[in-house]
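Homework-ish question, so no full write-ups if that breaks the rules, but can someone show me the predicted structure for this set?
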Amino acid sequence: MEADRIYNFNPGPAVLPLEVLKEAQGEFLNFNHSGMSILEISHRAKQFDEVLEKAKADVKELMGLGDDYEVLFIQGGASLQFDMIPMNFATKEHKGSYVLSGSFASKAYKEAEILGVGEVAASSKDVDFRHIPTQDELKINPEAAYVHLCYNNTIYGTEYHYIPETNGVPLFADMSSDMLSRPLDFSKFSFIYAGVQKNLGPAGTVLVVAKKSLLEKSPETLPTMLRYDTFYKKNSLYNTPPAFCIYMVGKVAAWIKAQGGLSVMAERNAKKAALLYEAIDSSEGFYKGHADKDSRSFMNVTFRLPSEELEKEFVAEAGKVGLGGVKGHRSVGGMRASIYNAMPYEGVAKLAEFMESFRKAHK
Amino acid sequence: MEADRIYNFNPGPAVLPLEVLKEAQGEFLNFNHSGMSILEISHRAKQFDEVLEKAKADVKELMGLGDDYEVLFIQGGASLQFDMIPMNFATKEHKGSYVLSGSFASKAYKEAEILGVGEVAASSKDVDFRHIPTQDELKINPEAAYVHLCYNNTIYGTEYHYIPETNGVPLFADMSSDMLSRPLDFSKFSFIYAGVQKNLGPAGTVLVVAKKSLLEKSPETLPTMLRYDTFYKKNSLYNTPPAFCIYMVGKVAAWIKAQGGLSVMAERNAKKAALLYEAIDSSEGFYKGHADKDSRSFMNVTFRLPSEELEKEFVAEAGKVGLGGVKGHRSVGGMRASIYNAMPYEGVAKLAEFMESFRKAHK
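A: Not a homework solution, just the prediction itself:
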């Protein structure tokens, strides 16, 4: 870590690979011999087209997906997807079926409900979202337009460790906080999306990876900017796209490839997560994890301390030694360490050591 | 101009002030002693809050607006505003009334029409959008929810030189391509918006400046992300905002203030535009302006050459001497020089000289 930078455990916007930041900084005034900043170049320019196509190709290659999937970049955050998905795909006859595994999963459902086209397939709200609903708990209406999951729950620190069997109902997933963090059989999903500001780039675009068959035609009554076919037919260039965000996502995808792809990411992320869960499990109850063990996230590690006073002290002391952004979300309280792809092992090791010394000083 | 940068006449994304780019580059790895890049910092952090509040305050100060107006940052481009505006404000009884002065003005109307809530107040389509409809040409329905203008027409190179009298109907304006380029009595407008990628920053956010009374309450049936009250009540932080774009808009607004504000911008922009219009008008018909003289834009100067071959040659030769992005939009053809706030006088002078020498070589 460079002397003046901290280890940033924020949940998103979040840490980005330092190599990627330096590369972007180096070419900030003159992108690829264009004589312009990437911020200034036309989205219709050849140089930008190369950026867009390479980003799309790298994402699909990392995910092992073929020609039947398309990659789109859409503004508005995952929150706008919560609206666009039911508007494009659900009807009163064929509703969207939602698995409520946390805050964003529930927000997605709420939007479908506003539109009158949502139903619930399962919920772990009654156990404070400590676990991911199991296959047995899912009540999937075979007439549903789709089953919607939030694959990693940033706030609660839980993550799916299986891909639900939906018996032919298309599977949709918000992967905002674990996109490209590990290999999955992505071909089991019909529609995946991610606000990129957690694992893939700066805030300002959503990455959508979906079956072309879903994107080709949208309901005629929808306004232009809320139709997926607008983005699909115009290659995400119907209007000016969030060019800098796409450029950064492309750089991060290339960085993941250069590191060895999703299996290397998964291995690193598992090692990092193990360090923190071990620090929790070996703390003799000083640290209490929020998530049930079988639902623990590789991306967001949530835990409480014996008192709110100690939690405040933990945040303050951690900040003094360059460990930032560890305060948890108010709905869970305590701590949350977000350890996305770009968080180096050294940062997590330092946090684990800090946890141990803090515990010894306060037990 | 730095040796390896060109003069960038692109219509948007477009040239940004070099001082601003250098400042952003300098602090790219560590924003304001946070130990994080501005791309990595939480949108809930104190440092980001300062960025947001300063950007909002500077924009309002530059526009001379008071407490009855609010500044919002919304993703999706002006194109999503074309949808949100009628969804939030128009009904079948009180339609949105649109002045069709060019391509984007017409696209805005088309969206209202899809929603069944649009009507036309005036159009200059029959004269190929060469002029801005005059006050006398406007047929404003007193029952209209709003009158919608596109204040500068990037593609056709026309701009309003008066503020329409609407007899109490709220005035809405898309100012994507001339926002903060000159002083206006902005208090005559109820709702102003601008995709920032022309005059104010990198692509990825829309700046909305509107009367609070319009933003306080949106129709209950609308999904969350399509309601202005969502953005208003949460200070544009309902979900993760396009933080980097907001940061850059803030820097550009501060730069405009440091230059002397909108009157200085207007003076500079008028001088730059005069150079090019003079080159057209004194060309003995070699260059033909698209816009009628009384509707000429200070921001986008559009003109044709005697043949398409010469136009191709003009673009190629201009490129060789570091004058980029001068090719016009296909719907007008010929050339378009976009000379926003950040385009230095020297760049325009160089283009005017080039026009003269090209004309002499080919007349």
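Now go work out the reasoning yourself. Hint: Residues 262-281 of chain A form the longest helix (20 residues).
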